[in-house]
C-alpha cells in the first residue's frame, strides 16, 4: 500500500471519501491488516466525536420507533456460503429476476455498445440472450440514496456487462451521467448514460473486464470526462 | 486516566439501564443488548434505544440540521440496528462505534443525496414542518464526554481541527474540505489522519 493511500484512513473513518474512492480503499483494507487496525481505532475515535454531540431526541420518537420495530423483519446472521447444490437455486432466482428486468427494459431504451455493429433489434436481443445464458453470468443490484435502482449483469468470459437503472432523476442542467468500471488501474469509462422520460437508462457493453470490481455512475459536465469527478451518484460491487 | 474514569462511568450507566427491566442476569453492555436484539428481544431493543438514541440523534442533527429530517434519519438508523443486529461482529469494534459509524454514514448519505437532488426538488422545503426541539438538559455523562472531546479537539492544530470538524460534523468529503479551506488535497488527507490519531491518543481510545 502506498503512503498516499494509507493517508486515507483518516478520511475513511470520517466518511469523507467519495463513494468510488471508498470502494477502492475498502479493497485495500481487506488486504492490509495494519490499515484495517488503524481504521478501527480511528472509527472508534470518530464515534467519540459523535457521542459528544448527544442530544436527547423528542420523546415521541421512541414510541414511533418501538411501534415500527414490530413490523420490521430482522436479517439473519451471515452464514458463510457453501459450495455446491445450494448455489443453484440462488442463481436461478437471479436469472428469473434478470428476465423480468429484460422485459421491462425492452419497454424502455436499451443502448447497446460494442466494437461490432449492434444496431438492429435482433442483434441486441441476441447479445442479451447470449449474456444471460452465459455459464458465468452474474447479477447484482443496488439502490442509491436518492432511490435510484440499478441492476448489473456481468459475464467475465464473454467480456460483457449490462446495466439497467430506474428511478433516475434527470441530470442537473448542463450535466450528464457517465458509467465507470473501477478496480485495478485507472477507472474506465463505460460512456454516457441518458435516462429516458420515465427515469430509466440501460446499456450493454462488450469489453475487457479483467480487474474490474466496481461499477459507478458519476455526474459530469456535458460531453463526459476522462476520469470520474467526485460527484458520484451511485457505486456498487460488480457481481461475480 | 480521564479516559479510564469515563469508561467506568459509562459502564455503570449501562449497567443501570440494562439491568432496569428486572433481568438481573443480562450482562450490562451494549454488545450484550445487541446479542439479545439479534434474537428478536424487543425489551432489549428498548434498553438499547435508551442507550444510543441521544448520541445518534445529536450527531445526525449536527450534520442534517433540519429537525424533521434529523428525526427521520434517527428513526432509520435505529430501525437499521434492529434489522441488522445479527450482523454486528465484536471483532470489528465496540457496539457504540458500530452504532455511531452507521449513524454518521446515514446522515452523510442524507445530506449528499439532498445535494444531488436540489435540481429536482428541494426536499428541505418540502418538509418545512420545522418543529422546535425540546432542548432537554444534557445528561451528566454526556457533558463529561463533551468536555473531554472539546479539550482534546483544542489540542489539535487549527488546520487539523477545522478539517476534522468539517468532515465529521458537516459531512463534507475531503475534497470539499480542501476546496473550502483552500488547501491542497494531500495536505487535507494527511491532516484528517494525523488529527484523528492525536485525538485517539488524547481520548485514550483502546489500541
Description:
- The complex is a heterodimer of chains A (240) and B (207).
- Chain A has 240 residues and is an alpha+beta fold.
- Chain A has two domains: 3-51, no CATH class; 108-237, no CATH class.
- Chain A contains seven helices and nine strands; from the N terminus they run H-H-H-H-H-H-E-H-E-E-E-E-E-E-E-E.
- In chain A, the strands form two sheets. A five-stranded mixed sheet of chain A has the order 1-7-4-3-2, with helices on one face. A four-stranded antiparallel sheet of chain A has the order 6-5-8-9, with helices on one face.
- In chain A, a hairpin with a 4-residue loop joins strand 3 (149-155) and strand 4.
- The model of chain A is unreliable at 82-93 and 112-119 (pLDDT under 50).
- Residues 1-27 and 119-139 of chain B have low confidence and may be disordered.
- With 207 residues, chain B is mostly helical.
- Chain B is globular, with a radius of gyration of 18 Å.
- Chain B has two domains: 1-116, RNA polymerase sigma factor, region 2, helix turn helix motif (Rna Polymerase Sigma Factor, Chain: A, Orthogonal Bundle), CATH 1.10.1740.10; 137-207, Arc Repressor Mutant, subunit A.
- The longest helix of chain B is centred in the first third of the chain and has 23 residues, at 42-64.
- Chain B is 71% helix and 0% strand.
- Chains A and B meet through helix 2, helix 4 and helix 5 of A and helix 3, helix 4, helix 5, helix 7 and helix 8 of B.
